[in-house]
Design a protein that fits this description.
Bound molecules: guanosine-5'-monophosphate
Helix content: 40-55%
Strand content: 15-25%
Largest sheet: 5 strands, parallel
Strand order of the largest sheet: 2-7-1-8-9
CATH superfamily: P-loop containing nucleotide triphosphate hydrolases
Number of strands: 9
Length: 212
C-alpha cells in the first residue's frame, strides 16, 4: 500500500457567515479547484434569484413540499432563516461520506449546531467574516439581486449571525478572495491529514514496520 492509498473518512466542511461576506464565491472557487469535495445542495422555500438554477444552487420547494420532507425526516438539519425555510437533504450527504468524499455545506449557525449534535467528529466548522460593516453593505448592494428592504434586513441580521463566530473552529476574514481561498484550502489540507480520519493508517504503518 502506498502513502496515497491510505483510506480516509470523508469530512463535513461547514461554511457560515453573514450574507454578503463572500461565502458563495469562496464555495464555488473551492469546488472548482478540488475534485474530492462536493457541495450539499440545500432545499429552500425562498424564491430563486435571477440566474439561480433549481437543483444546482438550491432545490426550490413550496412550503408544503418542504414540510412533507421535514416530516419524513429527510433533512439532516433544517432552519428558518430570514422568512424562509432551509434544509440539508440527508441522502446525498450520507452517500458522499460513505464513498469517502468530503461535503461542503453553506448553512447558518442554527444548522451548524444541529450537525454538531449528530456528527461532531466529522465536522470542520469555518466562519467567514467581512473586513468591515461598510464593506458588507457595499457587497450586499452591488450584488443587486435583492430589493433594498431585503438588503436592510440582511444587514440587521448580520450582527446576529456574527455573534456565533466563537462556535466555529476557524475564522477567515475575507479581505481578498484569493487570500481567503488559500486559507480555506490550507484548513482542508490539514483537516484531511488528521490521524483519526485516516482509516488505513494502522495497516500502512504495520506494513512499513514489517519492511524495516
Ligand atoms: P441565501 O438565501 O442568501 O442563499 O441564504 C441565506 C442563509 O441561509 C445563508 O446564511 C445560508 O448559509 C443559509 N442556508 C442556506 N442553506 C441552508 C440550509 O440548508 N440549512 C441552514 N440551516 N441554513 C442554510
Amino acid at each position: 500500500m502506498s502513502e496515497l492509498e491510505i483510506h480516509r473518512r470523508g469530512l463535513m466542511l461547514v461554511l457560515s457567515s453573514p450574507s454578503g461576506a463572500g461565502k458563495t464565491t469562496l464555495s464555488r472557487l473551492l469546488l472548482e479547484s478540488d475534485s474530492q469535495i462536493t457541495m450539499s445542495i440545500s432545499a429552500t422555500t425562498r424564491r430563486p434569484r435571477p440566474g439561480e438554477v433549481d437543483g444546482k444552487d438550491y432545490r426550490f420547494l413550496s412550503t408544503e413540499d418542504f414540510g412533507l420532507l421535514r416530516n419524513q425526516d429527510a433533512f439532516l438539519e433544517h432552519a428558518k432563516v430570514f422568512d424562509n425555510y432551509y434544509g440539508t437533504p440527508r441522502a446525498p450527504v450520507d452517500e458522499a461520506l460513505a464513498a469517502g468524499r468530503d461535503v461542503l455545506f453553506d448553512i447558518d449557525w442554527q444548522g451548524t449546531q444541529q450537525l454538531e449534535e449528530g456528527a461532531s467528529a466529522d465536522l470542520v466548522k469555518v466562519f467567514i467574516l467581512p473586513p468591515s460593516g461598510r464593506e458588507l453593505e457595499r457587497r450586499l448592494n452591488t450584488r443587486a439581486q435583492d430589493p433594498p428592504d431585503v438588503v436592510a434586513s440582511r444587514m440587521a441580521k448580520a450582527s446576529d449571525e456574527i455573534s456565533h463566530y466563537a462556535e466555529y473552529d476557524y475564522i477567515i476574514v475575507n479581505v481578498d478572495v484569493e487570500q481567503a481561498l488559500s486559507e480555506l484550502k490550507a484548513i482542508l489540507i490539514a483537516e484531511r491529514l488528521r490521524r483519526e480520519r485516516r482509516l488505513g493508517l494502522r495497516t500502512f504503518v504495520q506494513q512499513l514496520q514489517q519492511a524495516l
